[in-house]
Design a protein that fits this description.
By secondary structure, this protein is of the alpha/beta class. The chain is 30% helix and 21% strand. α2 (64-72) packs parallel to α7. The chain is globular. The site of guanosine-5'-diphosphate (GDP) has 18 residues, from α1. It is found in: Endomembrane system. Belongs to the small GTPase superfamily. Rab family.
């Protein structure tokens, strides 16, 4: 509704990437609508969904990547971020209101047919694998190449090992995930869209990192 005042300080576009079946659509529906579906097809077709949240001023993550990105470019992806000028509520002193616009692939990843348009303007990416499927973890390298080719070079990337609830089927240890993420200088969490574990935290982390790079 265009008559509604805009009630956020920043709008950040985040893209979800990773192999088909790892749980991207359910991570999105869990985060934005608190919904989970065992039937993957029912969630396909959403172009993007949004959620507005508060991010704190406290520096929760001082990763090498942030420091490096700051050094490289203080105005990282500034052209990709819409900064709102008309505040209709007093600004909170604790933090900023961020609207996350999260894009889902609608299944194109199956055909390796994700277009550049998908990545355009994205300031963050959540790179997802399935802890029960080793191949989806091995493909992280391919997805990082894809990001290098199509996304802004300063995009903030977070890696998520999803389906942490399926402990009995685990094929990738948390330590393997952590070590790979450290090597690539990415943030890392294990998540469960089914059990809601770390879903909110994953987005909080990525949005906070983006905010800190900009400020
Ligand atoms: P996408 O292809 O990456 O978008 O994956 P979907 O979100 O469609 O999920 C694929 C399948 O994995 C579906 O059957 C989901 O119900 C299931 N799934 C997604 N996330 C989880 C999770 O955290 N735990 C479990 N056990 N299953 C999940
Ligand atoms: Mg999907």
């Amino acid at each position: 509704d265009s008559s509604q005042p805009v009630l956020y300080d920043y709008l950040f576009k985040i893209v979800l990437i990773g192999d088909s079946g790892v749980g991207k659509s359910n991570i999105l529906s869990r985060f934005t609508r608190n919904e989970f579906s065992l039937d993957s097809k029912s969630t396909i077709g959403v172009e993007f969904a949004t959620k507005t949240l508060q991010i704190g001023r406290t520096k929760t993550n001082t990763s090498k990547r942030i420091a490096k990105a700051r050094k490289l470019n203080r105005h990282v992806a500034a052209d990709c971020v819409m900064q709102n000028a008309t505040f209709s509520t007093p600004q909170s002193v604790e933090g900023k209101t961020v609207k996350a616009q999260i894009w889902d692939t609608a299944g194109q990843e199956r055909y390796r047919a994700i277009t550049s348009a998908y990545y355009r303007g994205a300031v963050g990416a959540l790179l997802v694998y399935d802890i029960t499927k080793k191949q989806t973890f091995d493909n992280m390298q391919r997805w990082l190449h894809e990001l290098r080719d199509h996304a802004d070079s300063n995009i903030v990337v977070m890696m998520a090992g999803n389906k942490s609830d399926l402990t009995h089927l685990r094929a990738v240890s948390e330590r393997e995930g952590q070590e790979y993420a450290e090597k690539e200088e990415l943030s890392f969490l294990e998540t469960s869209a089914l059990g809601s574990e770390n879903i909110e935290k994953a987005f909080q982390t990525i949005l906070t990192e983006i905010y800190h790079i900009m400020n």
